[in-house]
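Re: the request from the purification team.
They wanted to know what the chain is likely to look like in 3D before they choose a buffer screen. I agreed to run a prediction and write the result into the notebook, where they can find it.
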Amino acid sequence: MRENLREGYTTGSSATAAAMSALRVLLGGSKPQSIEIPLPEKGTLVIPVERVELEKTCARGVVIKDGGDDPDATSGHEIHAVVELISDENEIRVEVSGGTGVGKVTLPGLPVPVGEPAINPAPRGQIIAGVLKEASMMTPSLTGTIKVRIEVPQGEAIALKTMNARIGIIGGISILGTQGIVRPFSHASWKASIAQGINVAKAAGVEEIIFTTGRRSERFYLEHFPNTQELAMIQAADFFKFSMLEAQASGFRKVRWSLFIGKLVKHAMGFPYTHAKDWHIEFERLARWCEELDIPSAITKEIAGANTARQVFEMIPQGSTQLFITTLIDKAKRNATSFTGDDSMSIKYCLFDFDGNMLK
């Protein structure tokens, strides 16, 4: 991770702050400039409050989601919480629901039941804890039901920039955040997305999952295999080992990878994580593999000093291209199997060039 990147806060933390500030005003307090919220696991966080509006019997709190320096489709957008108190003599309790811009779950395999708003368990618990904390501070003897409705005015538009529809979250975004804090370029969010996609695919009865390394490798795959179930497509990015282990843990027996030459070489070299920042191609080792394929020494010497896998691929003599690709795929399969320790899994690879032609 790069240094000096600014942390942010999750949609769950934003919703918690909006709900707590709305309740404060509803119970007669003044609108806070910022509010201290509980985090899902431990600790607290102070979050700025944009505004609070009274609406008849309700109060609406608004917080601007700030993802820090993390690339996040929700960052800069308003997260709302509409809070209403239904007074009775029963012990205080909190009900959380989703409104405009919060997606609904339509497929099994997610941590939220089908038909419910896509507010994950950790942020749901965070919202409830924050509201109860605020209630006890404002009115210790309060009784009744506090209803909290989370809304995201631009949620439906934001969701178009996410993978929500593919995993069955329709009509808006998810309210997420297991820790409450967004740490820039964290691996955790990618891993959570991969695991979630695998779980949804399994619950939907998908038999073979296709891991892609990005949107382009996904698009090329679907162009060649248009009948592929969309739920089967999972963007694994650089997480080679993690994705294989998650597939195995979920009981998948068939896995396919759709990628380009650079990632294939890294799979062949057994890199568990393939981002260029952390794992560099060993060109001398690649040159030795080419020597074993009887590629002329004049070329293998150039390969040893190459800069990119694409450059190497262009050096391979035309008559040796398919053998070179097959060798890389065979090595990649062995590494994938070594991660899982299960040689009964069927693992296949589809290699594309940068124009979308399938090379293998």
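For the purification team: The domain at 8-182 is CATH 3.30.2110.10 (CbiD-like).
Please add any questions underneath this entry.
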